[in-house]
Amino acid sequence: xxxxxxxxxxxxxQWLGGRxxxxxxxxxxxxxxRMHRAIKSAVEDGARKVVLIGTDIPGITTAILEQAFAALNxxxxxxxxxxxGGYWLVGLNRVENIFDGVAWSTAxxxxxxxxxxxxxxxxxxxxxxxxxxxxxxxxxxxxxGNEPPSPYLSVxxxxxxxxxQIARTIAAATSTDAEIIxxxxxxxxxxxxxxxxxxxxxxxxxxxxAGQQNRGAAAARGEVLLxxxxxxxxxxxxxxxxxxxxxxxxTVLGAFRFKTDINTPTMQWITFLTNLRARRLMLPYGxxxxxxxxxxxxxxxxxxxxxxAEDLYLVRxxxxxxxxxxxxxSAVTSGRRWQYMGPMRTTIIxxxxxxxxxxxxxxxxxxxxxxxxxxxxxx
Length: 379
Prior knowledge:
Layout: E1 2-4, H1 9-16, E2 23-25, H2 31-44, E3 50-53, H3 62-71, E4 77-81, E5 87-92, H4 109-119, E6 124-126, H5 136-142, E7 153-159, H6 166-173, E8 178-184, H7 191-197, E9 201-204, H8 209-219, E10 224-227, E11 232-233, H9 238-246, E12 251-260, H10 265-280, E13 290-293, H11 294-300, H12 310-319, E14 323-333, H13 336-341, H14 343-358, H15 363-370
Parallel strand pairs: 1-2, 4-6, 7-8, 7-10, 8-9, 12-14
Antiparallel strand pairs: 3-5, 4-5, 10-13, 11-14, 12-13
Helix pairs in contact: 14-15
């Protein structure tokens, strides 16, 4: 039985497989409540002995698990102590709540659990101590090196003179599971300085969003790439959304739902139509935060080096390889272009450019449309 937090049975089975594995959502509450519910569920399914382990114990072996099950023939409780004062395994041969009142994530977890067990008249058996993995440094030591492990995700931000936006964008993307790469196209303001101060890696080169994103991807160490515009803020728990979306191996590219920081009725209508297009036509744009496995990006050849609509061309190419999926959360992009050009005018220009690209018109001929001056208003 595999107790998971997030995702559903279908996603877990697509990710991990296993015809004989039962996938069960974890209960709500603290760690003790979740463990008690998992053990109770296994016993209700007919198990006479239950051994519960975490997924962060690299030293565990089949022999250790066999030792734990054998110990339950003569003891009520088996615990595998961890070197930080907790435990990495708990085994029971009956349903007994020995977790209530334990101060989780402290150095007293093991001793408090043993005290509760003895109070209930249980006889514990202790396995040899093992170390669990709580931090990236723990994993680096386990792997025998000093270098931190590669991140799950690389967030690639193409930027050009974005000193007013870049700090908020990086702050929303910062995570221990992600590296942030700002691919700068020759900024003359404080964009690079601000990005460096916030811990981002800097890749510099010629101006052009397609090329900047490709250079960022070439420098990326993550298994998954997220291409994020410099004026777009990611939703909370965005990595969870990405992970769950890509658990479906049929999905080759994902994106967040579209939203701007303008909340007028006109923009609400534009937002609705944009998300409808992205979902029904499998055609999200770059300001929605495109993410995909790095291997799929490399196989597709990256972004085509065109002056405009590089996101559209890549999405269309990826759609021929598999499914395009929208995550159930919105990335909020700046509405500055809609304010500058006017919402309807901007939408019409974007639609003409997209239709032209799909009809085979050269991106070089369409690019001037994107750079049209703002509509003058009467004084």
